[in-house]
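User: What would this chain look like folded?
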Amino acid sequence: MGMDKGLLEIDGVPLIVRTARLVDGVDRMVSAATVVGRPETYQRIGLRAIADNWPGCGPLGGIATALRASDTEWNLIVACDLPYLACEWLQFLSRRARESVADAVVPMSERGAEPLCAMYHSRCEPAIRGALEQGTRKVTEGLVRVRVEYLEPTDWKCFDSDGLLFKNMNTPADYEEAKTRLAVRAKS
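Assistant: Here's the prediction, encoded as structure tokens.
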């Protein structure tokens, strides 16, 4: 994208702020939104932010950092570039995790596991950290040592009539599409 995706604005609000507000509205049993990244950048826009303990290790490092800093059992981990997330879906995901005996509750889409919109129990932090220490960088590979409950599309399709729930923004075209789609939704 050429810049920090979280700082891209939709309706005048940085995407990461929109995501944090959404997460904060999910469940009081889930820790308040905390951004893993550059604190100096995100604190300026009013977000709680912590430095990544695993810089350069991608999202798996961010997950390990978030779990290590968390003071709650269950943690909602969400990428900042998922503009189509719905509060109702995240509430369902949170409830499902609290009822689960698994260490992580991860939705499956047509593309496979969606670990960047999932619930992680704090007890899986040592396994994820261990995977990082052994050189693992792919999130799904970092989860092989934890018990994962996978949610099938039938579990979440009712929250996503457009099929966009896990569509992230990787290109300027994706960003423009998201702005247009969300503007149309806001008018509906």
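The helical segments are 15-24, 39-42, 58-69, 87-99, 125-133, 139-142, 153-156, 172-187. If you want, I can go into more detail on any region.
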